[in-house]
Amino acid sequence: MLYITFIIVFGLIILLFIIKGSTSKDKHLQAQLDKYIEREGYIVKEVKTLKKDLKKLEAKLKGYQEYEIAGVHISKRKNYILDNCNEGDEITLKPEPNNPVDENAIAIYHESKHIGYVRAIDIDKLKDTVNDIYSAYIEKIEVGYHFTVTFMIKKH
C-alpha cells in the first residue's frame, strides 16, 4: 500500500514538472510571438509613414505647397471636419474682403461648408493664387493634443 502511494505521489510530481515545463515553454513562445507582432506592427506603421511622406514629396515636386488651416479648433468646424472630411478631399479658398477682423482674410470651404481660414502669416503667399486657377486639397487631419488640418495648393 505504501508502495502504491509512493508511485502515485512520484507520478504526480513528474506530471507537475511536465506541466510546469510546458507552461514555461509556452510563456517563452508567447513572449517571442508578442515581440514579433510588436515588430511587425512597427514595420507596418513605418511603411504607412513612408508612403505618406512619399505622397507629400510627389505633390511638392508637382508644384504644390503645404499650409495649415487656422480656426479648425472651433467645435462646430472641428466636428464637421471629423465627420465629413478626408485626406485628399478637394477644398476651395475664397477671399473675404468684408471680413470684420481682416479684410485680407481667405476662407477655406469643403463642399460649400466653411472649415477655417488661411493663417494670417500665409495670406501674402496665397492672395494671388486664390484669384487665379488653382487646385487645393486636404493633406492631413491630425487628431492629438492639438487638432490640426493642413492643405496643399498649386497654382495652374
Structure overview:
It is built from 3 helices and 6 strands, in the order αβαβββαββ. The protein is α+β, with helices and mostly antiparallel strands and 156 residues long. The longest helix has 60 residues, at 2-61. The protein is elongated and about 105 Å long. It folds into 2 domains: 1-61; 65-155, Alpha-Beta Plaits (2-Layer Sandwich), CATH 3.30.70. A hairpin with a 5-residue loop joins β5 (134-142) and β6. The protein starts with a helix and ends with a strand. Strands 2-3-4-1-6-5 form a 6-stranded antiparallel β-sheet.
Features:
single chain, 156 residues, alpha+beta, Alpha-Beta Plaits, 2 domains, six-stranded antiparallel sheet, 50% helix, zinc ion binding
> What CATH first level of the largest domain would be assigned?
Alpha Beta
Q: Tell the overall outline.
A: elongated
SSE succession: HEHEEEHEE
Radius of gyration: 30 Å
Helix run count: 3
The low-pLDDT segments are none
The CATH architecture designation of the largest domain is 2-Layer Sandwich
Average pLDDT level:
82
Give the DSSP E fraction (strand runs of 2 or more residues): 15-25%
Which strands sit side by side, in order, in the main sheet? 2-3-4-1-6-5
User: N-to-C terminal Cα separation, in Å?
Assistant: 99 Å
User: Biggest sheet, open or closed, and with what strands and sense?
Assistant: 6 strands, antiparallel
Q: Work out the oligomeric state of the chains in this entry.
A: single chain
Number of domains: 2
CATH fold field value of the largest domain: Alpha-Beta Plaits
User: What structural category characterises the helix and strand content?
Assistant: alpha+beta
